[in-house]
Known about the structure:
With 312 residues, the protein is of the alpha/beta class. It has one domain (3-308): Ribonucleoside hydrolase-like (Inosine-uridine Nucleoside N-ribohydrolase, Chain A, Alpha-Beta Complex). The protein contains 12 helices and 10 strands. Strand 4, helix 5 and strand 5 form a beta-alpha-beta unit. The protein is globular, with a radius of gyration of 18 Å. The mean pLDDT is 95.
Amino acid sequence: MARNIIIDTDPGQDDAVAILLALASPELNVLGITAVAGNVPLELTQKNARIICELAGFPGMLVFAGCDRPLNRPLVTAEHVHGKTGLDGPQMATPTMPLQDQHAVDWIIDTLRAAPENSITICALGPLSNIATAMQRAPDIKPAISEIVLMGGGFFEGGNITPTAEFNIYVDPHAADIVFKSGLPLTVMPLDVTHKALTNKARVDAFRALETIVGHMTAEWTDFFERFDKEKYGSKGAPLHDPTVIAYLIEPNLFSGRHINVEIETQSELTMGMTVADWWGVTDRAPNCTFMGGLDTDRFFKLITERLARLK
């Protein structure tokens, strides 16, 4: 039986690949996609989510616009990485499928309230503003959530937007703090894992060799996305951060990690948004998440390529 998921996202080229992977995978039933401000402002993230659904052949997917700013801080965006649209690279058509009228947070609350206990997985690919707002507004939704799997944070890899903070957590650290303190089962894909999910020429060529629109677009996105990280890290490719969330739901044995305590820094501007991970168990703080550290990279890219081949 397929796992019911909600994808909360701020697309982003790597978010796009994650959404395509989910839509191509029969193990997953995407109930809806909720957009949040992050990589680019909300007006673009909700548009990008619809572009991706149409590309995948899912024009009936429910897409909702959510929070246009973090809980307590001004919005920080990442056009320097993703381009001014968030999906720079290939030329993209304007989507024709509708944006739903309901606010994403209201839809999340209504959907979870109507769902059986432990029946829906939240896949968080961007800042956690929508998820935290829903929890604050309606604490009674928590029993319906079986797990939250999120891309965010870092420990051994440090940060990618500041020396200590990963972008998704940094954009809305107060929302992340709420989620990490929620008591819900939490699986985290930090930079320690995603920096092992590196593209290279052969992996991008494999996307292009699918000879489909989806394969061509994915190759174009990764070509564009790579330029920033190659220059920044001196690497041969770029990390595909967000698809790790979806890949974990399909093949969890691709990943290895530890059940540890992670706290979110919300006080110090120097380390704002840092995921303070007790990897070595040096505190008496109770574990609150599974923090991943290892990835079988070749199998990860094989999975993505195989699944994208199912989308024409």
